[in-house]
Amino acid sequence: MPEADVSSFAFPESLKGQDMIALIVRRFAGLVITLLIVSALIFLVMDLLPGDPASVMLGTSATPETLAALQKQMGLDQPLLVRYFAWLGQAVRGDFGTSYTYSVPVAGLIAERLAVTVPLAVLAVFLSVSLALPLGVISAGKRNSGLDYVVGVVSQLFIAVPGFWVGLLLILLFSVTLGWMPAGGFPGWSAGFWLSLKALLLPAIALALPQAGVLTRVTRTSVLEVMSEDYVRTARSKGLSERTALWLHAVPNAMVPVVTILGLQFTFLIAGAVLVENVFNLPGLGRLAYQALSQRDVVVMQNVILFFAGLVIVMNFLVDMLYLFIDPRLRAGAR
Amino acid sequence: MRQILRRPTLLAGLIITVILVAIAFLSLVWTPLSPTKMQIVHKLKPPMAQGLLGTDQFGRDLASMLMVGAWNSLSTSFLAVAIGATIGTLVGVTVAAIRGLTETVVMRACDIIFSIPPILSAMLFGAFIGAGRFTAIIAIAVFMVPVFARVTLSAARQIWTRDYVMAAISMGRNRAKITYVHVLPNISNQILVQVTIQLGLAILTEAGLSFLGLGMPPPTPTWGRMLSDSQTFMGQAPWLALLPGSAIALAVLGLNMLGDGLRDLLDPRDNV
Q1: What SS3 state is found at A105?
Q2: Best of B106, B116, B250, B263 to disrupt the A interface by mutation (most A CBs within 10 Å)?
Q3: Contact between B112 and A221 using a beta-carbon 8 Å cutoff
Q4: B231 touches chain A (CB under 8 A)
Q5: Do residues B221 and B68 make contact, with C-beta atoms less than 8 angstroms apart?
Q6: Residue A126: how many CA atoms within 13 Å on its side-chain side?
Q7: What is the complex's ipTM, to 2 decimals?
Q8: What are the Cα distances from residue B77, in Å, to A172, A273, B220?
Q9: CB proximity A181 to B under 8 Å
Q10: Does B100 touch chain A (CB under 8 A)?
Q11: Could you give the CA distance from residue A59 to residue A295 in angstroms, rounded to a whole number?
Q12: How far apart are CA A124 and CA A130, in angstroms?
């Protein structure tokens, strides 16, 4: 969400409980409107691009008659607005259409693939946060030391390497050379929890490293900024040790920018997942999007893209809401 | 010049970037061998055994392919960022001059565009207009527009509160003129830093797109497709995976270091 929204409630001395609720309701209305606009936009782009779904499906060899028949069957002869609202009406009832290639409802297809992508993303975020937070904080605590320098170089490297290449290197090392890990594929959760988790481990590391690089740098900068503020200096002049001041005062207050970046990074997490799932042959949503592209399954593509965009928007909304709970100035106002 | 020498990050970033750009331009007039020339008898040779960096599964010279790949990657990324930065900056300064409801609407629109990763919009465009350099450039550029619009807007808004701008307003200068004379020159540093950093991101995205087959079509070598092809020969020829990936990482690292260094140099306030 835009920076302006954050700064507009940066000093809400008078923010009471009801105001909080009103604020949340207003934001939620904004979220719904944004989602509607995104769906309309994706619908419009699919419509404006040359070649409609019917001609894409039939290919260049189709006769005008078969094309017209299919267009009629798919409802493509209706005006744009009629089609959009028909689609929207079905979508709110959970009907996102039927895949051309799989001949199954798209909603079910997406749900099935989410069972791979969501655990993968959660594992990746967990790994990157548990690597980046300690590194960033320690690096800030020992500013300008050799350790700080090494962490700086390593995080620069993490940011620069493409996640999917890290995936290839991990396969090269752990699967091809050492033979410890599967080179790809997914056994399915029914085949065993640990077996499936093992299949997700290397892809999650590939996805996590670039994230961890960004987060480490943001954590370090943010902690350093807070450390130079008055209340931390006061705490230290009271006789608190450097370490207590760091972990008790600086770290909690340094988390706001870290959470912001984590939210903004979500777009890149999704883009990374599309690539990493293809490297490791994981039957996730990203792989589905890619397969739908090569099979020209427009309905699936439209919905997967819409789903990903919606996910990013909802995620940003949640981060925005999270500010209300982690920014102590806001809590003080609401008390 | 002395300023640059005293900053190791800036210097390292500058050296890496200049070398890569030089290699990219050199590939236009000279490569050790033709990057598309197949010599099956020499296939899958390791570095130094055949040519400087070995050969791929068709016996093509890897060094030549990497050089042409540098040109393809850098030129595609540069064009995409140039388009995105130009449109985004125009949107940003215009909105900063008008403010009000326009600002809210335009920035919301930016949020929406930003919510669709370029990999996905490239798939969307690619399905209809076909994969290729044009698709890649448009997909990346579209994503860059909101990035630059946001950076420009927040920088320009600060300039609009300065005394000299107030003076210009009170003198009756119109907003377009103030934007051109006062706002743009004062935010150009921030835009330059952002261009450098986003170039790194564009290279990563372009590599991802060509890895998925959404970039330039074969036989033109791209770093991303070289990586994609390397998967089949991982056990026999690991250098096929190692070299193009290192090239991507080096290019991004160089640009990021250059961007960081430029930011420190041009914006002393941010020296944490």
Answers
A1: strand
A2: B116
A3: no
A4: yes
A5: yes
A6: 9
A7: 0.90
A8: 28, 21, 16
A9: no
A10: no
A11: 11
A12: 10
pLDDT in tens, A206-263: 999 999 999 999 999 888 888 887 777 787 778 777 778 778 777 887 887 788 788 8
Q: What amino acid is encoded at B202 in this protein?
A: A
Taking one residue from A and the other from B, the number of pairs with CB-CB distance under 8 angstroms is: 143
Query: What is the rounded (10 degree) CA torsion for A151, A157, A161, A167?
Result: -40
Number of residues written out for chain A = 335
Question: How is residue B46 written in tokens?
Answer: 């390791």
**Cα–Cα distance for residue pair A177/B191, rounded to 1 Å:** 45
Whether B238 has its CB under 8 Å from any CB of chain A: the answer is: yes
pTM assigned to the model: 0.87
Per-residue model confidence as pLDDT tens digits over A79-111:
888 888 888 888 888 788 778 777 788 888 888
pLDDT at A199 over 80: yes
Question: Do residues A220 and A278 touch, judged by C-beta distance below 8 A?
Answer: no
Residue whose tokens read 């070398």: B19
Secondary structure (DSSP) of B165-189: HHHHHHTT--HHHHIIIIIHHHHHH
**In terms of residues, how long is chain B?**
272
Long-range contacts of A110-113 (CB under 8 A, 24+ apart): A110/A285, A110/A288, A110/A303, A110/A304, A110/A307, A113/A283, A113/A284, A113/A285, A113/A287, A113/A288
Identify the CA nearest to A199 among candidates A220, A175, A232: A175
Distance CA A185, CA A111 (A): 18
CA dihedral in degrees (A278, A124, A127, B242; nearest 10)?
20
One-letter amino acid at B113 equals I
State which H helix or E strand residue B19 sits in: helix B8-29
Provide CB contacts within 8 A for A266, sequence distance 6+: A311, A312, A315, A316
